[in-house]
Amino acid sequence: MGKYSKGDHVKIEVVNESSGESEWMWLLVERSDDDHRIVFGRLDSEPIAVTDMRLGQELAVNYENVREHRRFD
User: Fold this and answer.
1) Which of 50, 54, 62, 71 lies 20 to 30 angstroms, CA to CA, from 14?
2) Mean pLDDT, the chain, whole residue set
């Protein structure tokens, strides 16, 4: 098992490559890989600044882009 477990939420930072503006969004975790420092999941926030992403989109995110972690029991 990785650092983040299925069902956890992580807040990720995503940068709009066109404008340079960053946006923080929630990712619902499916799994994580500590060896490669990647968390996999589905976007659980509606993007505003990063218009090429959508709610529910599957993502793989580097641990360096995780800004917050929540585990709900």
Assistant:
1) 71
2) 92
What whole-number distance in Å separates Cα of residue 31 and Cα of residue 17? 26
With 90 as the cut, is the pLDDT of residue 19 above it? Answer: no
**What is residue 55's DSSP assignment?**
T
Residue 10 CA: distances (Å) to CA of 18, 57, 62, 65 = 24, 15, 11, 10
CA–CA distance, 16 with 43 (Å, rounded to integer): 16
Closest CA to 27 of 2, 72, 60: 60
Residue 38 half-sphere exposure, CB side, CA atoms within 13 Å? Answer: 7
Residue 16 has pLDDT above 90, yes or no: no
**Quick one: CA dihedral 49, 53, 54, 56, positive or negative?**
negative
Distance of CA 2 to the CA centre of its chain: 15
